[in-house]
Amino acid sequence: MPTSAASAEQQGADLIGHSRENSPTVGHIRKRTVHANGLDFPILEAGSGPLVLCLHGFPDHARSWAYFLDRLAQEGYWAVAPALRGYWAGGAAPDGSYRALATGQDVIALIEALGAEKADLIGHDLGARAAYAAASLDAARVRKLVGLAVPYGKGLTTAFVADGDQQRRSWYMFFFQTRLAEMAVQLNDFAFLDRLWREWSPGYVLPAADRSALNETFGQPGVLTQALAYYRQLFTPPSEAEAQAVEARASGPIAVPSLYLHGTDDGCMSAQLSEGMEAMFTNGLERVVMPGAGHFLHLEQPDDVLNHVLRFLKC
Predict the structure, then answer these.
(1) Are strands 119-124 and 51-55 parallel, antiparallel or unpaired?
(2) H/E run at residue 281
(3) What is the pLDDT along the chain (315 residues), one digit of tens a residue?
(4) Which DSSP symbol is given to 84?
(5) pTM here?
């Protein structure tokens, strides 16, 4: 078992990194691709047993879940961390969509492609958004749901419009709407991403090797533009009436037992935005605010987060 989340993430980096890939297996973590919803998803996986999908956010990648995969495998789970659509060369959305609906459909399709009837979902940031959409679209496919760092419900949309504090935190979303974004993010070896990590998790320093692996992900052809598309489509509704109706299904009440974790020091999303979100969870929501944790709480306090998650999954 890795001695820290950082060492586990480096293990995952060695797995996926194109220039460092020497073996399909490092430790107990394996890698392969799985065809689902029109895409060949690169995945990391470990263990066997009930399926748990770990979904990454921005600016992040599947490798950050390596420590979780190892621990979950030791606890008797089949832990799988896929790349979100767009996060690998050749992984552009076939339908051009990076909306919650599309990523939620990806999650449901991955569960089916992996041969499972249902799965537990753990999502961070945009991965949480995908997990919420999947649970809202097809609750029968989701046993339990864990969201990290991005809340669910209309309160978040309202905050983008009316909450000055959250507007300040979300400045990057608005900047990503401009043509300057690609150029700015890539300058000085992705210094822009370094800034986001510092602001969002002020008590955490991303190790140099992990920073390099992250930059390698965003340096792949097309990946940065595809990652920015998530935000460029965030504030614009689907154009067709049918698509709008289906999109609404991906943001409705969630009938799956759920756990939500948020750090008090999160510089990206205020923990206060998760207050009152229980109303959107018709089968119960446990909300935990973790002192001293920032946005990347699964890396900052991996064992504490895992203890909450494992207790919830097993109860």
Answers:
(1) parallel
(2) none
(3) 333 444 444 444 444 443 333 223 345 899 999 999 999 999 999 999 999 999 999 999 999 999 999 999 999 999 999 999 999 999 999 999 999 999 999 999 999 999 999 999 999 999 999 999 999 999 999 999 999 999 998 878 788 888 888 899 999 999 999 999 999 999 999 999 999 999 999 989 999 999 999 999 999 999 999 999 999 998 887 767 656 666 667 788 999 999 999 999 999 999 999 999 999 999 999 999 999 999 999 999 999 999 999 999 999
(4) P
(5) 0.90
Amino acid type, 47: G
Residue spans of beta strands (DSSP E) within the chain? 25-26, 29-36, 39-46, 51-55, 78-82, 119-124, 142-148, 258-263, 285-290
Task: Tell me which amino acid residue 250 is.
Answer: A
How many other C-beta atoms can be found within 10 angstroms of the C-beta atom of residue 264?
Answer: 14
Q: Which token pair is 39?
A: 């895409």
For residue 134, the Cα-to-chain-centroid distance in whole angstroms is: 13
Query: β-pairing, 29-36 with 39-46?
Result: antiparallel
CATH code, domain with 122: 3.40.50.1820
In DSSP notation, 184-246 reads HHHHHHHHHHHHHHHHH-TT----HHHHHHHHHHHHSTTHHHHHHHHHHTTTS--SSHHHHHH
Geometric angle at alpha carbon 149, from 257 and 132, rounded to 5°: 40
What total number of domains does the chain contain?
1
Q: Are 55 and 121 in contact (CB under 8 A)?
A: yes
Q: What is the DSSP letter of 279?
A: G
- For the record, the structure tokens of 21 come out as 């890939």
Tell me which residue range forms the domain holding 16: 5-314
Identity of residue 189: D
**102 with 95: CB under 8 angstroms?**
yes
Structural contact between residues 118 and 144, judged by C-beta atoms closer than 8 angstroms? no
* CA separation for the pair 269, 295 (Å, rounded): 7
